[in-house]
């Protein structure tokens, strides 16, 4: 069986490769990576898993067609940004092939702000029309490595003694999910497909972290576990919003984007399907995940 994986060099993909190397059930299948030329294969398992590497960009349908024409996949595991699902489906349609799809999506689709939810809504609308089967796993905020783009920024600020700006008093709620739990969910979905046991795994599912925590309490946990004092910077939200938009207009990169600030106005708490999909598998709790993450960082 041929399996194409996009985004294998990312945070979730790197952990997935470790699971695949140790998998007795999936070791006889042939894996192919589709990745950007600029992507760095940080995982030592990359060369052990993949029989071929195809370079391209998921935003480019021609690049995807070239990869899929060479590999003729039975299964595509799409870990790259879910907003590129329409391009992936376009390539599949042009080649007249019918692979099963496993997609890592985002609970950002539920945002009440159109600017935030629009690309996710478009991706889900396109895959709903796909006739050959899919498992679409919507993840909440993923953390657990210096490669995550959210909690790692908080850690850097807090551990460096720099002040953290907490709009709206840090009251917005999150359900962060540890990256290894996301990789496990993807791996298990692949296993079910290869064993022809997909009855309970077809469709859309939310995979959320087991704990509901405010942004302020997450910062407090990081402060306690790292032994660093939490310093809070109070900036009026309207002023902060204007500063972020100005920085984006001028090309200046800041730790927070205007979209992230906008989404801090809403809680990110959703019904999780984890226990439905994986009833016997406990998740990594937020304190345990942060401890593991911080311990690993400080041992480097």
- Count of helical stretches: 12
SSE ordering: EHEHEHEHEHEEHEEEHEEHEHHHH
Strand count: 13
Note the beta-strand portion. 15-25%
CATH superfamily of the domain at 2-143 and 177-209 and 269-283, by name, is NAD(P)-binding Rossmann-like Domain
Shape: globular
**Which structural class is indicated by helix and strand composition?**
alpha/beta
CATH architecture of the domain at 2-143 and 177-209 and 269-283, by name, is 3-Layer(aba) Sandwich
Helix content: 40-55%
Enumerate the spans where pLDDT stays under 50 for 5 or more consecutive residues. Answer: none
Radius of gyration: 20 Å
Q: Give the strand line-up of the largest sheet.
A: 3-2-1-4-5-6-11
Distance between the termini: 39 Å
Could you describe the largest sheet, including whether it forms a barrel?
7 strands, parallel
Mean pLDDT comes to 91
CATH class of the domain at 2-143 and 177-209 and 269-283: Alpha Beta
**CATH fold group of the domain at 2-143 and 177-209 and 269-283:** Rossmann fold
Please tag this protein with its features.
300 residues, alpha/beta, Rossmann fold, seven-stranded parallel β-sheet, two-stranded parallel sheet, 13 strands, 42% helix, globular
